[in-house]
Amino acid sequence: MKTIEVPYGHGRQSCSVPAGVECVYGRLKQVEPELEAGELICQALDNLLGEVDLEKLKRAGTVAIAVSDITRPVPTRIILEKLLPWLAQSGISHDRITVLVGGGLHRPATEEEIIYLLGEELLQKIKHVVAHDADYNEDLAFLGNSPQGTPVYVNKYFAQADYKIVTGMIDAHQFMGFTAGVKGAVIGLGGRPTITGNHQRLFQPGAELGHLEGNPARTDLEDIGRIIGVDMIVNVVLNDKKQVVKAVAGHPITAHRAGVEFAKEVFGVQMNRADVVIASPGGFPKDINVYQTQKALTPAAQLAKPGGTIILVAECTEGSGEESFEKEMSLYQNPGDVVSAFKQKDFVIGPHKAYLWSRTLAQTKTVLVSDKVSPSLAQTLMIDVKSTLQEAIDTVLADYPSNVKIAVLPNANSVIPVIKDESPNSKHL
User: What pLDDT is recorded for position 349?
Assistant: First the structure.
């Protein structure tokens, strides 16, 4: 027998399959940190990429720093522990700094989550911490429209700061190409109209996993970043152990592109298509709810053969994670109806996740492994749920002959599949 194991919440899920089953892992490139995370971040801050106006920083009365919420495994505490002394070199004291926890249209970060993200020691130093709420209009500033017509709303405390810094983690993104750069401010601290206007570009050509240049969603994002006035970024790349293996800092575009070039080497995975794809988002926090977990379906669907099956392994302790997503799913009887109906409606964030979720379910048989998703939620989401990976694989393999091929993606949310040539007409994704 062979054992398959993938991340699940804070732990693992595993199963056994017959020895004759072909099983291939799609792993991220194994990259070990050359230095401790804090040292890599310090090096990046000491070697800024692109043009950064440090004289503007020295003149700044206030500095705003955008950080990610708990749904991203960004080492926020370590970044801030190194960023604050670096700012102090330019005369920026702690009382002039505001940290904004951005989650886009996620619920605002709780006090407990902020303590988890920043730590009590940092919170003793930083007195101004804001949990962003995309729907609280009194805290939003309107700055006009992007060249593509997206209305630009951003948290006013970020907009009003004299110097603006965005932190984040460079990862694969299903339609933005890659995460990070100015995204932590434009989306993380954006108002609902801004996030909606930008995300509706996911239907346009070029809005694809792993693609930046010519990507309409990314182009709009960076145009908005210029309107907001992001001065610099501090981004990291993590390996499959969630360790920092690369840090970049500097100009919002130049530094981000340098980080992306490194990330491509880590996240690009060459594989053949398979009958069964076992995909985990990568454990907590990427599988905290179905809303986040859905992202793992994009690379999994690319790897599944026609008529194949996806086994999605995700704890989902928060259930669906988004009320409007769940409500949209409840309106229909099958995934195909969700997809068809969504294309006829005005674009709305939340329900858009129902479209992305159902798009895969309509094309590929999908099983969710979770012991936290209730039968009623499973029915709403139109998905077969098993509590263990062993139960799921036993059920699925019963429908396949002995020569079945299985692909395993332990960190599917970060994987950019590169499909190996299987015929003269096959394409690289």
Answer: 86
Confidence of residue 421 (pLDDT cuts 50, 70, 90): low
Q: pTM, whole model, 2 decimals?
A: 0.85
What is the three-state SS of the chain? CEEEEEEECCEEEEEEECCCCEEEECCCCCCCCCCCHHHHHHHHHHCCECCCCHHHHHHCCCEEEEEECCCCCCCHHHHHHHHHHHHHCCCCCHHHEEEEEECCCCCCCCHHHHHHHHCHHHHHHCCEEEECCCCCHHHEEEEEECCCCCEEEEEHHHHCCCEEEEEEECCEECCCEECCCCHHHHCCCECHHHHHHHHHHHHCCCCCCCCCCCCHHHHHHHHHHHHHCCCEEEEEEECCCCCEEEEEEECCCHHHHHHHHHHHHHHEEEECCEEEEEECCCCCCCCCCHHHHHHHHHHHHHHEEEEEEEEEECCCCCCCCCHHHHHHHHCCCCHHHHHHHHHHCCCCCCHHHHHHHHHHHHHCEEEEECCCCCHHHHHHCCCEEECCHHHHHHHHHCCCCCCCEEEEECCHHHCEEEECCCCCCCCCC
